[in-house]
Each structure stands twice: as C-alpha cells, then as structure tokens.
Amino acid sequence: MYEAVNGRFPPVDGSVTVVPELAPGRECSFGFTGHAVVATALPPAEVHARKVDGFGPTVLPDFLRWLAGPAGEVHVTDVTLFARGTGGDRLPERPDLADHPRVRFALGFRDDVRVFGDERGLVTLSRGLAGRPELSIEAAPEGQGRGWGRSLMVDALSLAPDGEPVFAAVSPGNARSLRMFLALGFTPIGSETVVLPARVRS
Fold first, then answer.
1. Degrees (nearest 5) of the Cα angle 54, 13, 188?
2. What DSSP line would sit under 100-163, residue for residue?
3. Number of helices and strands (H, E) in the chain?
4. Quick one: 44 exposed, middle or buried, by C-beta within 10 A (0-12, 13-18, 19+)?
5. Do 111 and 133 contact (CB within 8 A), yes or no?
6. Would you give the DSSP letter of residue 169?
7. Could you tell me the sign of the dihedral formed by the alpha carbons of 105, 107, 112, 118, in that order?
C-alpha cells in the first residue's frame, strides 16, 4: 500500500497475491488496477483454488462470502485514497465526543482512535488497515452545503506530520464525500473490502 503511495503499483497481470491476515480476525480483499491482494489466515492454495483473478472477482459477493465464512461479516467496498499531512495540529482534541456514532464505528474496526473537532464537525484519526494512519470526518448538519466539510478536512490534514501519507476509505456511493476528498487532493490507489471471518473448519 505504501509502495502505491509512491507510485509503485503491482503489475497489471491479473494475478492475486495472498498475504497473512491484517490482525487476528481481520481480513481484507484489496484491489489495484489488474491485481488483487487478499489478506487472510487461509492457506494461499485455498484462495487460488477459487480460480479468481486480479481483474475484479476478489470483490464479488460469492468470493467475499466464501472468504468470510457462513457466519462472518463482509463490509462495504470502499475507495482507498491518500493525501499528505501538513502538520501543525490545527484542531483541538475532543475526547468528549467518544460516544458519537462515527467514533463508535471507528472503534469497532480501527486502533488508537483519537477524536478532534470544533463547531464544524468531528474528525477521527486512527490506525486502519495494516496500521496505516486514517482520517474520517463528519460535518455538522448545519454546515451542509456551506463548505464546513472541506475546511474541516483541510485542518484534519494538519493532524498528520508534514509530508507523511494519511489515508481515507470512502464508499463509492457517497458521491458528495468522494468529490470533496478528490477536490482536496486525495489520490485514489485502489479499493478495499474488510472481512471479519467466522469459519467452520473440518
């Protein structure tokens, strides 16, 4: 993932690379252009036996359900983007917002979650897939259409050290949010689907 940030992408050859699970009970199917990476506790031979390639099948429902197992969880497929931090810590930390729904969601999937914000809304900064620094934001309802989300994200980038990559995962259907991230210079590098497996092993 960090190699992709620096412009070094996997070969566009349709292959699937299998790597160990991200953390116990946390797996992922990650799609680049013409190449897929599956992070799982399953043996690579079992994944390759599914006859999937790197041109899309690793994010199809049948494969993801197989990966998760009958009782596992398959989460939405997100666009993965990155930008560079600007440094300066321009947002105050807000531990009083720890019970906000967006924060509770982040706590369920990410590590070292910290909360920042002001009257424009809140920002979470956490450790996401493979320990990467990850931002998410939620603008206050009264700021919708008034540019609060964009200005909040500009300040959110100050929470990451100057020049260091910071990531975001955005649902493709959340067009308003995706347009904002792109307008602020975030660059898409692929897609990701988080899987929380629950398998019955013979």
1. 60
2. SHHHHHHHHH-EEEEEEEETTEEEEEEE-GGG-EEEEEEE-GGGTTTTHHHHHHHHHGGGSPTT
3. 6, 9
4. middle
5. no
6. E
7. positive
Helix (H) or strand (E) holding 31: strand 27-32
Q: Could you read off the pLDDT tens digit of each residue along the chain, which spans 202 residues?
A: 778 888 899 999 999 999 999 888 999 999 999 999 999 999 999 999 999 999 999 999 999 999 999 999 999 999 999 999 999 999 999 999 989 988 988 888 788 999 999 999 999 999 988 889 999 999 988 877 788 899 999 999 999 999 999 999 999 999 999 999 999 999 999 999 999 999 865 4
Amino acid symbol at 85: G
- pTM for the model stands at 0.89
Tokens found for residue 98: 């720890």
Rounded CA gap, 108 and 105, in Å? 5
Query: How long a stretch of residues is the chain?
Result: 202
**Backbone φ, ψ for residue 123 (5° rounding):** -130, 135
